[in-house]
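Appendix B, Record 12. Input sequence as logged:
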Amino acid sequence: MGQTITSADYYLFEQDGQRYAFLPSSFAVIEIDALFGEVLKNSHLRPKQIHKVLAQQFDGPAIDEAILEVDSLAARNLIRPPLARPPRKKGFDLQCLLLMVTNACNFACSYCHGDHEKLPPRPMNEQTARRAVDLLLERSGSAPALSIYFFGGEPLLNFDLVKSTVAYARGRAIEQDKKVSFGMTTNGYLLDPEKAAFLHENGFSPLFSMDGPPEVQNACRRLRSGGDTFDRVFANVKHYLELGGPCSARATITPACMDLVALTEFFYDAGFRGVSLEPVTSPGTTPDPRFQLDLDLLTRSYSELAERTLERIVAGKGRYNLFVTILERIDKGNGHFKPCFVGEENWTITAEGDIYPCYRFIGKPGYRMGSVFDGVNLKISRRFEKQNTIFSSRQCHACWARYICGGQCPADRLEHTGSITRPVAEKCIIQKHLFTLALKLYVRIRRDPHLSETCFAKPAHSPLLPDPACV
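Logged structural output:
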């Protein structure tokens, strides 16, 4: 063989009786036959060894032809060595700040990772918020568009600060000929008409933390006083949608509801623009039996959701956004090397003004980057640039899905494995199942000219290739 090919350089799957190979480094998807698949799986061997392994299944000339086909893919850069690590940045142009405007929360969600009782109860004050905005502009470099994200706790508990910070940031951005946008994650309970009007008028597209219909929402997302939350949250969401404001939902998948089709349809029927479904994780390294998900049931539920997604596409109802990002990434050949840019382009500011890479790292030893009042330690930014990438993980480097995935959340990795470079095995299983479902959806859509035109604005970067002998 012309070059060493490992199991990280291809992924074999079947759909509707046809075999396919996904080639990660080029994002090519090709039709193959049984012999080609076997040669690919044994392509780390010398040709004579491949003949010896496959002699009882296939004849010699056919094996030789398949070996040449694999070599031809490598020669055309469809199979090639792993993509190179991007060059080290000369500096970090800050583009997004997440402001922890309060540590307090009116909810007591059963699976919450926030230690609200342990954090100082005082909210962020105006001096800290303004200094954070100044820091964003000072360190934004040539970035023309900046964003500020309000978080908590529950950020609407400090709504006056949200309003004053939006006004201050807009004025400062105009002075420097930059644009600034705003976002917020909220549980929605306090989103009365006044607050809803403000968010809508200022271009917010809020992300509502909401788990689903009443029996699901009220099971895990209760008031700190113990009361139900669904009715008031849902009424507030409907009012925001009536204003014409787009919004999305972020639901946590718990044992209370693992019917992902029912959950997804609930949110889309309610009018949400997008839905993120995230499996619950137990805080800390010791699994909490209350949040132990049945992995087989979860993967079956994802499979049902993939089928329902195709049904919606065929019926002209659009796609569920769970698969949109993955499908477009495959179609455009847009490889990702990082799960996020926390600590680099994105920083979190605590209510007291301390700087952290992400809110999930607040209070963890070794991750405080400084303060809005006394400077920044960019050594931590350099650490995230180097470590928060698939190139720094032995497990990721050996995975066929690495460029679709880009790696797991570094906070999840640290919390569950003790290292931001070591992935969580259970999450890998779930993610690879999702990517396999997306690949199967992809070939079904691309094989139908009408569906292909409906789903994808342009031709694929590397159209589905026929039998590799034709490559």
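Residues 295 and 426 are 8 Å apart (CA to CA).
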